[in-house]
Design goal:
CATH class: Alpha Beta
Oligomer: single chain
Number of strands: 5
Order of helices and strands: EHEHEHEHEH
Strand content: 15-25%
Radius of gyration: 13 Å
CATH superfamily: Cobalamin-binding domain
CATH topology: Rossmann fold
Distance between the termini: 9 Å
Strand order of the largest sheet: 2-1-3-4-5
Number of helices: 5
Number of domains: 1
């Protein structure tokens, strides 16, 4: 499966998403990493262009609810119906609110890379 990993918003920290990208590659996934500071519109465009099977958003900036809402809107505007996940600096109390916006999973603060990789393998 081809996975698109992205850093939406103004967050400039990408070590964690790069570690995840390498772990997913080691597990046999094809990974497209968009780089830093991508808009929801850019992320959806890249997902369509790369024909990915899932989108993973890494958000550390505290704007996870706003970004997830906008990703949902842009995906709907583009009639893009692929699964997406959110991970990063996500407080546990925000997980249920995020899930209501449409991601198939949310990986809050403290989630181990192995747990994320195992989730991808079960998809």
């Amino acid at each position: 499966m081809k996975v698109l990993l992205s850093k939406p918003g103004l967050d400039g920290h990408d070590v964690g998403v790069k570690v995840l990208a390498h772990a997913l590659k080691d597990a046999g996934f094809e990974v497209v990493y968009t780089g830093l500071r991508k808009s929801p519109e850019e992320i959806v465009k890249l997902a369509i262009e790369n024909k990915v099977g899932v989108i993973g958003l890494s958000i550390l900036s505290g704007t996870h609810k706003i970004i997830a809402q906008r990703i949902k809107e842009v995906m709907n505007e583009n009639n893009l119906k692929i699964p997406w996940i959110v991970g990063g600096n996500i407080p546990a109390q925000d997980v249920q609110d995020l899930l209501k916006l449409g991601p198939i999973a949310v990986f809050p603060t403290g989630t181990k890379i192995d747990e994320v990789v195992a989730f991808f393998k079960q998809m």
